Request: fold
Amino acid sequence: MDNAVYVSLSRQVSLQQAMDITANNLANLDTAGFKVESMVVQTDPIAPSKTASLAANDNPAIQYVLNAAVARNFAQGPLQQTGNPYDLAIQGDAFFSIQTAAGTQYTRDGRFMVSPTGQLVDQQGEPVLDSADRPINFQPKGSPPIIGADGTITQDGVRLGKIGIFRFPSKAPLSKVGGNKFANTNPANAPIIATDASVKQGMIEQSNVQPVAEITNLISISRAYERITQMMNSTTDLSKTAIDRLGKSS
Reply:
């Protein structure tokens, strides 16, 4: 009976982490460019030791529940019109490139602004990079820039560069690092310029979180947790009853 309790406990730990992820999804419902996440679980078979009195097929492996990974859905979120010339959204499969102290990172959050020195920066004040991995500089006293669908930046008739939008052969090595950014953890998964994506000026991409689906998921997780708790209590009660009866019979 102890094995049943341990297996149930492993599932409860998994459900608790799944609930944390779902709650985080809901908390980021209004975060531009946020991508919904979910927990991927797997079983971890642990075979108990064999005894001379038990055949191998009478002593099956115990299947514990393990959290294997966090899956992320990179599907396009809806675009929202803002009218701010420095707000940018990507239509298609690509990321903006950001220069950080930890190296180049990537984001779908296009809520940009201009620093006092004229650089285009993100919400954390880190420089947005162009297609050649260089910071983008504006004339502080110039008129608002015009940014074309291909990312070309023009201010007062002068071409200033091109917003860098990049895609990856695989998104699996992209690791969330905070600030709504991702780091590429595999050098072999080098980013390339996304020629099939376009930039939308004066717009931002909203989160792709579906609130109804996430609330439903929370309810399902809570009910599953309660069912396992009830099963563990029942198993514990059976163990106590068995011990009491053995004690009386002896």
Residues 130 and 164 are 4 Å apart (CA to CA). The chain has two domains: 2-75+209-242, 79-205. The longest strand covers residues 62-72. DSSP finds two helices and 17 strands in the chain.
